[in-house]
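Example record for the data management plan.
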Amino acid sequence: MVHVYRIAVSEYPEIKKEELKQLIKAHSAIFKGYCLSYFDGDVRYSYFGDSLEIKDIHFDTEGGRLSFTVAIGYYDACKDKNTLDDPIFNVQFRFDKATSAIIFELEESLWHENN
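Corresponding structural encoding:
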């Protein structure tokens, strides 16, 4: 299932790269369902949104794409199997000129084709 998220951008269309990165990072919670969907809904995985780090971002007045890492924890009954990884995720976005917002359409299905 695709969920649509909007983030208001008061500086659109003059927003600078660093400002956009900070705005996205401040809304890191929107990526939780998308990131955890790669782990098939397994409750042993946790999302740590505060660790989100944008590795690459490209955009123009229409939209763009970004790559980010975020900590994903795995907790097992045996503590020596617990892990904390920083996988890379890639998403696209577009700007809605009418509402000055960034629009993310994120696939959050537990069984999407990337699994």
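Summary line stored alongside the record: Residues 37 and 112 are 8 Å apart (CA to CA).
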